[in-house]
Description:
two-stranded antiparallel sheet, 2 helices, alpha+beta, Alpha-Beta Plaits, about 35% strand, 4-stranded antiparallel beta sheet, 6 strands
Amino acid sequence: MIALKDVLVKPIQTEKSVAAEAKGKYSFLVHPEATKPLVKKALKEFYGITAENVNISTLPEKTRLIGRGRILKRRRDLKKAVVTLGGKKKLDFNAFK
C-alpha cells in the first residue's frame, strides 16, 4: 500500500495543462501504483478539494540515443492523472497542506 503523502509526485505545468486549468482540469505526476480513489483521497487530504473526476494514463518508457548513437538513455514509465474539479473551484498548487 502506498502512503497517501507519496501519491501526488508533482504538478505538471506545460502549455497544454495550463490551458486546461481554465476548464477546471489539473494534471499531476502520480506514483506508478496510484489508483483513482487514492488520487481523490490525496487531493482531499492535501488541498482540501474533492475531485469530480480523475483520469489516469501511463506514459510509456522513452529511449533515446545521445551523441553519435553511443549512449542509450531511458526514461522510466510515468503515470499521469488529470483531475477535473466541479463548478468554479480553483486549485492553487502553492496551497499544499
